[in-house]
Write a structure and sequence with these properties.
The protein is built from 15 helices and 13 strands. Helices cover 46% and strands 17% of the residues. The radius of gyration is 23 Å and the shape is globular. Among the domains are: 155 residues, 3-Layer(aba) Sandwich (Rossmann fold); 107 residues, Diaminopimelate Epimerase, Chain A, domain 1, CATH 3.10.310. By secondary structure, it is of the alpha/beta class. The C terminus is likely disordered. The longest helix has 19 residues. A hairpin with a 3-residue loop joins strand 12 and strand 13.
């Protein structure tokens, strides 16, 4: 069964993703930095599943349950009632926020405490294919480990068992802020490593993003298990990161190991199809790239002749344009912005964006209105018809 994980964009959310990948093979992992984006993200997922014939599983981890999510849970169950009873979609929600229990109660959903764990609440949506668990005494990463039977398709690598166990303990101590826990210092160190590296080398949206972060966390945890202090681990991270990048770049054409790690990765990212959406006028649009990464990658893309103009849209709604033909400023002016001819910025009309698709939907009609309208016109289909 195809598995999609939707998880929080923090150490616990990525810890949960790392554990899921140890026990299954997720087809997609969607990271949500802002709780305000959960509603639009799950709405998009529901629309996709409504068109999917084969049964799939959605696993939601570390996202506080609020009204939009509760509406999604109910609509998911309603969708399942219309499907073949032999092929329902499955939904598993693993959360640990006390506020989630409060929100569920406000919507008329009372928790059922588990006999062997009074801090674990189960909610009944009237669909056996929907499992909603909230454990106030556990991190999401630990919940994934505890409840892995709900999604697992394999056993974890025995050689990594101790590292995974320590990762769970460290993230659990940090996320629940148990400062007297002996694993707290290691969890704090992992948190710093996570934030320093999660978006600077392999951005969200690239196929190597989650494997890169997962391996970094596991390798760092292995150093802690071997006795490294937080300070020693911090000094070891560049070597750990470099070894991971060496492996990622092993088959990359034109890789130059004499360059810095970011410069090497930028060359690979500039050739990526997954990070960019081509607009009708040839502008390449990316979403939520780190500013430094976008600067390096856009320069390499334009130098290669792949595009003359790029725009990067941030979640907060800011746009950064780069060009080699003096059109960056023209683009920025359409979004209440300004700057230089080949480096300029603006702001989305709606204020924010929650995904690449959302960014494209907001930018394309403004940046290329005539081309977009032509592409949507019924005459476009007639023009290209070859019957």
């Amino acid at each position: 069964m195809r598995l999609t994980q939707i998880t929080h964009h923090d150490l616990d959310g990525y810890g949960a993703a790392t554990l899921v990948a140890a026990y299954a093979e997720p087809a997609r992992i969607v990271h949500v930095p802002r709780y305000g984006d959960v509603g639009p993200v799950v709405d998009d997922e529901l629309k996709r599943l409504g068109k999917t014939k084969a049964a799939e599983m959605v696993l939601i981890t570390d996202l506080g349950i609020e009204e939009p999510t509760i509406a999604f849970l109910r609509r998911f169950a309603a969708m399942n009632r219309k499907r073949d009873p032999e092929a329902p979609h499955r939904l598993v929600v693993l959360d640990h926020h006390t506020s989630s229990i409060d929100q569920m109660r406000r919507q008329g959903l009372e928790p059922k405490a588990e006999a062997d764990n009074p801090r674990l609440s189960r909610f009944d949506l009237g669909d056996p294919s929907v499992t909603v668990l909230v454990d106030e005494a556990s991190s999401a990463t630990k919940m994934v480990q505890t409840h892995r039977a709900l999604f697992a398709t394999r056993e974890a690598d025995p050689a990594r068992a101790e590292d995974l166990a320590l990762l769970v303990a460290s993230v659990d101590a940090l996320d629940l802020w148990r400062k007297d826990d002996p694993h707290f210092p290691g969890g704090f160190a992992l948190d710093e490593i996570f934030w320093d590296n999660v978006g600077t080398l392999v951005p969200v949206g690239h196929p190597a993003h989650d494997p890169f972060v997962a391996r970094l966390l596991i390798e760092a945890t292995a150093r802690l298990r071997a006795g490294a202090t937080p300070a020693e681990l911090e000094r070891a991270v560049p070597a750990i990161r470099g070894a991971i990048v060496d492996e990622l770049m092993r088959d990359e054409p034109g890789d130059d190991a004499s360059l810095t790690t970011r410069q090497r990765m930028a060359r690979a990212l500039a050739r990526s199809d997954a990070l960019f959406h081509a607009l009708p006028d040839g502008t390449l649009l990316s979403f939520a790239l780190d500013a430094g990464t976008f600067q390096r990658v856009s320069d390499l893309v334009m130098a290669s002749g792949r595009a003359k103009r790029l725009v990067n849209v941030q979640r907060a709604g800011t746009l950064s344009f780069r060009s080699i033909d003096g059109t960056a400023l023209d683009g920025a002016r359409l979004f209440r912005g300004g700057g230089h001819q080949d480096a300029a910025g603006g702001k989305l009309p709606s204020g924010t964006a929650f995904s690449l698709a959302d960014a494209v939907a907001q930018v394309e009609p403004v940046l290329t209105p005539q081309k977009s309208a032509a592409a949507d016109s019924p005459f476009a289909a007639l023009k290209n018809w070859k019957g």
